[in-house]
Amino acid sequence: MKDAAYIERPNRSLRIYAFLYLAFLYIPVLFLPLFSFNDSLFITFPLKGFTTNWYGQMLTNEPMHAALMNSIKVGATSAAIATILGIFGAKAVTRFRIPGQKPVVFLIMLPLVIPGILLGVALLILLSRLGVPLSLYTVTLGHILITVPFAMAILIARFEGFDKSMEEAAADLGDNAWWTFWRVTFPMVFPGVLASLLLCFTISFDEFIMAFFLAGTDPTLPIYIYGQLRFPQKLPSVLALGACILVISFFVVFFSQWIRRRGTEEVSGTGF
Amino acid sequence: MSEGTAVAGVAPEQRVNWLPRLRAVFMRSEALRGYTLLSPTLIVMAFSMCVPLAIMVVMSFWTQHAFEFDTTFSLANYQEAIDSPVYEALLIRSLVISGTCALATVLISYPMAYYVAFHVHRRKLLWIILMTLPFWTSYLLRVFAWKVILGYNGAINSGLKSLGLIDQPLEFLLYSPTAIVITLAHAWAAFAILPIYVSLEKIDRSLLEAAADLGDGPVTRFLRVTLPLSLPGVIVAMLLIFIPTVGDYVTPALVGGPDGIMIANMIQAHFGKVNNWPMGAALAVSMMITVTVVALVYMWVTRKATERIA
Q1: pTM, two decimal places
Q2: Domains of chain B, with CATH numbers?
Q3: Most buried by CB count within 10 Å: which residue of A31, A56, A87, B243?
């Protein structure tokens, strides 16, 4: 690295560009918390004054709480199921030489490159043909479908990251498959499991495009928010809610990325 | 009768031999064990993706009569999709907007990825997390934030007005294809940054030294070494952004205005207000085929091009 220093000498304009780019990424998002404290129904400059009214409104908004609970339920369930499926899948493709592995992995990763609307509409058609009523369960099914590829990507990287001989040693020392898994494999992949749970939850919690088609009368939070966007008088409390979600998801994601990337030097291309 | 009892007499013995043998075969065959472990995941994926997509294709050949589906095979929906200029125009517009967005996102993200790959030496992890963090916050809220910023009375217009720079709000900001491109470029930035960063990071630094030793200046070095070697990341990034954005209907609905309606809005309408599911399915299938064809052609062209460079 030191010898290459003359190639990588500091580049001031690139550095300025980098900070401008971060501003482009963050400033739009920061408008939500900014206006959530603004004492006006209308989201315009100049700012009118400081208020926490909108947060008060948010706290007493029953339908919003119901939607929030729905989203948490759907997110937790789909994160748990997607992560379990991801563990099975990742162990299978990293620990066994199976014929047709590439097509199988491709199939599991496919939802990443299919527009969400197609998956949502197709599932809607299937469910209605089967006579399954739309509910939070159908939303959960849709969310499992789109979170499994993320869980797989994270967990495959994790399974590849530790030595297979550890498991073999445990097996040689007399542990059966089940104990080998619990005493060796699971602790090793645990950071990956945690990261997968958190990220799958976040994806499901934010997902709108599929939920719009698959939700019944019980809205998830994004559907509720979408419904509120056309009422100007409801906007400020949506902003307050948005600001809270932003802060919480920033922490959750920062934490989960930190766990996942710590220790693994390589940043895998598919694993975000 | 006697045969029956004979078989029954043998059967338990056979079963006793059979089970361990089956178990032995199972344990010996890696493929079988692998697939058994993989089966729950595959079943869920098949049931929630492959079957629904297949049924959608079947439904696209049906027709809608009032509130009933006519399930006789018919090409009427596709005929209508081809005959009506609206659908074609929307599909082309979606492709153009998504293509522009993919290109724009990659162009603005490349220098950033380059900076982190080559000029950040400490706390790389922090930079990577910083660049991808907004991606994980609510998509709907980020789109909405742009509506707030670009709107007629939005942050930019009201800000410029209160500074006295403009009298009338700039109308071109919101409700235009440009607004969609800006919003989507912001929303999908992480999908450009990460693949490009990974391919830049992989470049062997000694190649750059060799180029420098042989007398290449910084610009030639970038054009002849860095850029060609990072192309795989750029190519993947374009595809990762292009495909999902073609099917977006939230951004067009919130910031696109009447000139920014895309094909996905039309599909959504057919499953909602218009209530013509078979037609919606036909549009969805048309979109799926178009996107796949564009993606395949793109991959073929880029492969030929990179082969020529290499």
Answers
A1: 0.84
A2: 2-59 (no CATH), 80-309 (1.10.3720.10)
A3: A87
